């Protein structure tokens, strides 16, 4: 009875996180002309950490070095993931940036399996990425594709480290200090990028909204979901991220993708779901 009771809420958490983070990314992109990607990243991490700290009231005193190391690793991973992704988003449509970035979660899922069929899924995803690299959408920038791929590496690390942190910490007690560390690391680039615009109340309000939609809310939902479900299920649900991102970019930013880009997006989504469903069973369940 217990697994069934928790299954539906966990699924809802992951889907809600995806909708929130992609909507927040669309809003964040509209702030790039004034604050720049580093400025938005700083606001996202700073206000997100503050919100989670008030809610969770984490206590790090008495924690082992291993636990503190997990928090530090999670914070550094978050700031690197955000900086590279937002820089890619400054050069690419939202749907394309997320599709390329998704190689991170795909690699995490594929690493859990030794089945031959998973090689087919990886080739399918690689074909989708190749379509994008060959002009899958309007204003496709090679540097943007590279940055999105690097962000994907950090996204994969976030899933692995976040899973371990979720088993050692409750609620947001790991995420709040991790985001605070990320904000400190991003501060110099944020100040250099945003400058005097940080004194604009409207921009600060928009930054707070981005932090809630793109960081505090979805990451909290994901951390809770990762505690309640196996990584296989989590990976399948996360495979919807590229499609949600493309729809968010279309609705909120008016970004139109070529048919080739939609085909590439579908290939990556199907491959990700396929890999996640065929990874080796018996993976230890969450706490």
Automatic annotation (TrEMBL):
Keywords: Cell membrane, Membrane, Transmembrane, Transmembrane helix
Compartment(s) where it occurs, according to its Swiss-Prot or TrEMBL record: Cell membrane
Membrane topology: Multi-pass membrane protein
Entry GO CC: plasma membrane
Entries under SUPFAM superfamilies matching the protein: Multidrug resistance efflux transporter EmrE
Domain EamA positions: 143-276
Source species taxonomy: unclassified sequences, metagenomes, ecological metagenomes
Protein name: Unannotated protein
Organism of provenance: freshwater metagenome
Main location: membrane
Transmembrane parts of this sequence: 35-56, 68-86, 92-109, 116-133, 139-161, 173-191, 203-221, 233-254
């Amino acid at each position: 009875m217990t697994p069934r009771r928790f299954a539906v809420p966990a699924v809802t958490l992951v889907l809600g996180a995806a909708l929130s983070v992609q909507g927040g990314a669309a809003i964040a992109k509209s702030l790039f002309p004034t604050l720049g990607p580093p400025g938005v990243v700083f606001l996202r991490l700073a206000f997100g950490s503050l919100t989670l700290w008030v809610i969770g009231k984490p206590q790090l005193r008495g924690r082992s070095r291993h636990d503190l190391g997990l928090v530090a690793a999670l914070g550094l991973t978050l700031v690197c993931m955000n900086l590279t992704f937002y820089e890619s988003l400054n050069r690419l449509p939202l749907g394309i940036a997320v599709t390329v970035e998704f190689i991170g979660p795909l690699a995490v899922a594929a690493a859990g399996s030794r089945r031959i069929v998973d090689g087919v899924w990886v080739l399918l995803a690689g074909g989708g990425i190749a379509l994008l690299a060959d002009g899958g959408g309007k204003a496709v920038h090679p540097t943007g594709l590279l940055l999105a791929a690097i962000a994907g590496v950090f996204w994969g690390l976030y899933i692995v480290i976040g899973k371990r942190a979720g088993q050692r910490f409750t609620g947001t007690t790991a995420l709040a200090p991790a985001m605070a560390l990320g904000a400190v690391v991003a501060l110099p680039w944020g100040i250099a990028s945003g400058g005097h615009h940080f004194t604009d109340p409207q921009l600060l309000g928009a930054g707070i909204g981005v932090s809630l939609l793109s960081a505090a809310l979805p990451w909290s939902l994901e951390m809770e979901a990762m505690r309640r479900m196996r990584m296989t299920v989590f990976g399948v649900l996360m495979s919807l991220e590229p499609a949600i991102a493309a729809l968010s970019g279309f609705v909120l930013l008016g970004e139109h993708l070529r048919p080739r880009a939609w085909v590439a997006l579908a290939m990556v989504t199907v491959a990700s779901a396929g890999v996640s469903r065929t990874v080796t069973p018996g993976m230890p369940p969450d706490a």
